[in-house]
Amino acid sequence: MNIKRALYSLQFRLRQKLLGTYYGVRSPRNVSLTREPERVLFVLAGLIGDSVMCTPAIIEARRIWPNSRIAIVGKKHNRELLSGCEFYDDFFELNSDPLSLRGAAEVRKFETWLTDQHFDAALILLGDQFAHLLAKARIPVRVGVMGTLMHRCLTHKYDIGSARTWGADERLNALRSLGYEATKRSPTLSSSAKGRAALLEKLAKLGLPTNSNFVVVHPFGSTSNQWWNIALVAKLARFVDTQFGLKLVVIGKEYSLNGQLVSPQIGLGAGKAVIDTINQLELSEMIAAIDRAEMLVTTDSGPFHVAGALRKPTLGLFRARRPEHSNAYNTADILFGNDIECERNCSWDKCRTSPCVQMENIGIDDVTRKVGLLLGKHTREDKDFRNHPNL
Q1: How confident is the model at residue 257 (pLDDT cuts 50, 70, 90)?
Q2: Residues 69, 120: contact at Cβ < 8 Å?
Q3: Among 25-29, 212-216, 251-255, 325-329, whose mean pLDDT is lowest?
Q4: 258-271 as b/e: b if 16+ CB within 10 A
Q5: Which of 24, 144, 327, 374 could form a disulfide with 124 if both were Cys (CB 3.0 to 4.6 A apart)?
Q6: Domains of the chain
């Protein structure tokens, strides 16, 4: 970490602590919900995969409080992620960090909206830095993760265990901290009608007829140590084309690799077997692509969690050093990349080399074997369903 980044991190943490103390000492304590709240706010300002794992908490809140008006605040990608879901009523899009100086005007608009809504309760699922704004707006019940720098702004706190391993059930503790019995459930998403229509239009322009079946592959990740070997995508495309008559739709966006912004080009001799949508799909369209696909092949990244929440057959490509969410969804099969030196010398969140040796060691033969088994099983189940005597 360079000096400039270290200083920024230090002042950011200091501001959080000071704001937490300032608004915390002015906040009422020992407040509880004695009736069903009229208005509830969820803070969901996090990464795609983390946000997916938080959906059970909002769904349970809808079950527990069927007459409450549920609102969510989050960023653009959070709004698009939930655009096909019906378990909330309102969404306030805030793309600036609550502590950002550059986004102060946007934050002030949010503060005005927050005050005008008169929420009875606010629950932070992702976005601990929102705590002081909830206290400033005098929301009576404010729930968040224990041990954060702004914990004094909260009236109720919940435990998520390890920041490395938490999952959907740990976020349900937000409701349990209020005394409710929150039923354990799996993350759930739906694709939106708008996203599905836009996807089909874009795929048609790229040469894929509307009625075509396809497999989706996402070989990327938000960091380069999550990437699968891009050179193997064409071989996977030829396999699903020759063995199953399916096209391979590649999804993803530009990523920073070794400090350089790159836009991967997928061609590599696969011809018309590959439909390259890199940088061309909005998140709602990506969700629709996964929802419509026969199956997904993806790294340990946001699309893996999206597919799990859509109950879509998935092959996950994971580093053995990072197995935390490999068993999160029963519709997913996992291939681990292994390397003894990585296990000994790499930390759980950092690789010594780029690309990651463990991810590079996931070979095409193992991937095609797994894909063949998953597609074969999927095809058999569809055939059995269509031939069921009661249909």
Answers
A1: very low
A2: no
A3: 25-29
A4: eeeeeebebeeebe
A5: 144
A6: 21-176 (3.40.50.2000), 193-386 (3.40.50.2000)
